[in-house]
Amino acid sequence: MTRLAGLTLLLLAAACAPMRNAPAPAPSPAAEASRTPRAPVILISIDGMRPDDLDRGVTPHLRRLATQGVRAEAMVPSFPTKTFPNHYTLVTGLRPDHHGVVDNTMEDPRMPGVRFTLSNTAAVTDRRWWDQAEPVWVTAEKQNIRTATMFWPGSEAAIRGVRPTRFATFDGKVSANARTDTVLNWLDGGNAEGFGFVTLYFDDVDHAGHEQGPGSPMVMEALAKVDRAVGRLIDGLAARRLDANLVVVSDHGMAPVSASRVLRLDQMLPAGSYRVVSSGPFAGIEPVAGREAELAQALLQAREHVECWRKADIPARFAFGGNTRVPSYFCLAETGWTLAASEASAQRTKGGAHGYDHQSPDMRATFIASGPAFKKGVVLPAFDNVDVYPMLMQLLGLKPLPSDGKVEPLLPALR
């Protein structure tokens, strides 16, 4: 493999029918003048990739990136260890409690009757769910750095009135190679559109992990597939003579689960006293009016394999519970155990899951980086994922907004 070529983004508008691009207005002379010769940054997420997945012998391109650049022993995700909360943390530097995307499924008392779920397109594109924070691409666009996002959570919404220059509407049927080709098409002509920040998202490993669990044959196949797509990106950048800083991350790890390790909420709690907002590795619960005391008495008693709290009493180490979107009661299962709302959901428990304590080894995430801004052969000790944001902003030459992260843990990796 040639040495890492640069990373920048160009969205393929016509080659992928399921995708829709935001209009790309011609840059103004002022915008042209504001551009810097910095190498573009390409942020790649491999959803659900554990740090030890890099050592399973099926990811030669990712291994080469790590060898020629930087890898971390692990990256500690934020709590809860879910997809949307941690993807937004990576691009804002804020804990979920601070940026407002507190779960993949959530409610907001200021938006009665509205429920945020991954399958609810109207909610996912509603800026009100995202406006508590400003992601990298919004700040960059405001400062005349053009951006492009391939399926990054939040990028379909006009956050604070701003969208990426190019973005794609999420479609899980689009293959890993097609996603890569979209980015390469955006970058055609030697990055003629002048993208400074690009994102690329792969969910194959996460899907396989949920289906069969970590380290399973399906996960191995998914890792190999995504690795080939990353190799395709590297080769495509080299062919375009583009030098970029490539940052590969994951949002969380994966823990094995089974139907033999399930706690049923309908057996723990009085019927009719509660409403389940979300369940799985953790459960968010709202009381039914007039039944609060009854629910609290049942919910807060000591049990094996689970801890439950009023939101105000969630331990400080989770940095969670202050946001209005966090349910009134919150239960967290021991890693590998599942909180099921009913018998039917209990019977469906299999494979793998995430959402557990962010300090659990099974929840650890991946970090790899390579490019002109990075040293070679560096292995960083574990660091928090909130620290990725200030590093990205430094690579882009932008002043970071106030956040929970700090760039210092990553400075040993930077030239």
Structural class: alpha/beta
β-sheet strand percentage: 15-25%
> What is the straight-line distance between the termini?
22 Å
Biggest sheet strand order reads 7-6-8-1-9-18-2-19
CATH first level of the largest domain: Alpha Beta
Number of DSSP helical runs: 14
Looking at CATH, the homologous superfamily of the largest domain is: Alkaline Phosphatase, subunit A
Uncertain runs with pLDDT below 50, 5 residues or more? 1-36
Shape field:
globular
**Largest sheet descriptor:** 8 strands, mixed
Number of domains: 2
Helix content range: 25-40%
Tell me what you see in this structure.
InterPro entries: Alkaline_phosphatase_core_sf, Phosphodiest/P_Trfase. This is Type I phosphodiesterase/nucleotide pyrophosphatase family protein. This protein has 415 residues and is an alpha/beta fold. The chain has 14 helices and 20 strands. Strands 7-6-8-1-9-18-2-19 form an eight-stranded mixed β-sheet, sandwiched between helices. Strands 12-13-15-14 form a four-stranded antiparallel β-sheet. The two termini are 22 Å apart.
